Amino acid sequence: MDSDAARLLDAVEFAAQKHREQRRKDPEGTPFINHPIAVARILACEAGVTDIELLQAALLHDTVEDTDTTFAELEARFGGAVTGLVREVTDDKELPRAERKRLQVERAPGRSPRAKLLQLADKLHNLRDIARCPPAGWSPERVQEYFRWAAQVVSGLRGSSPALEAALERLCAERAAGPGLEAGPGPGAGTAGDARRDGQ
C-alpha cells in the first residue's frame, strides 16, 4: 500500500467497519463514523496537516476506546507510529470517570506534538457538535460544564496550532468558558468519551 491516498482510505474503511453499528446520541442520531472523519478533516483543512500518519490516527482515534479493536490489531495493520498516536489519546476505560477526566487535564501538556494536534481537533469537533445540537437529555448547565472542562484540557495543548486554538478560544468564549481557555471543570463535567457516549 504505497500511496498516501490508499493509506488514508484503508484507515477510513477500518474505522467505518469498527464503528458501523454506532451512532452519536444527539437527537439526529448521527452515524458515529462522521466524527473521526470530521476530526481528520479539521486537521487537514483547518490546521494544514499533511502528515498521513496523523490523519490516519485521527480516523482511528476512537476505535480502541469505543469498539473491540486492540492496539495489537492497529499496530499489525497501520504500524507503530499510528498506533502510538491512538494510544496517547485513548482513555483507560477501567478507570472511574472522574479519574479519566482528571488525567486528560493532567496529561495534556506532556503529550507529543502530533497527539496534541489530534486532541485539539477532537475537542474542536466535539464542542462544535455540542454547540450546534446538544446531546439528548443534556441540560444547558451540563453543556456549560462540558465546555469548562474541555477548556481546561485545551489550555494544556497550547502551542500546537494557532488556527485550532483560535477556533477553540472563540467557541469557548461564546459559551462563557472564559477567554484564554483557562476555565476549570465544572461539577459533573465528563470526559471526551462520556460526551461521545452521551451524545458527542
Keywords:
single chain, 200 residues, mainly alpha, 11 helices
The residue fraction in helices comes out at 55-70%
Summarize model confidence as the mean pLDDT. Answer: 88
What is the general shape? globular
Percent of sequence in beta strands: under 5%
Low-pLDDT runs:
177-193
Radius of gyration: 16 Å
Account of the 3D structure:
About 8% of the residues have low confidence. Helix 2 crosses helix 8, helix 3 packs across helix 8 and helix 5 runs antiparallel to helix 6. It is globular and about 45 Å long. The protein is built from 11 helices and no strands. By secondary structure, it is mainly alpha-helical.
Topology:
Elements: H1 4-18, H2 34-46, H3 52-60, H4 63-66, H5 71-78, H6 80-88, H7 97-107, H8 113-132, H9 140-155, H10 162-174, H11 192-198
Outline of this structure?
The protein is mainly alpha-helical and 200 residues long.
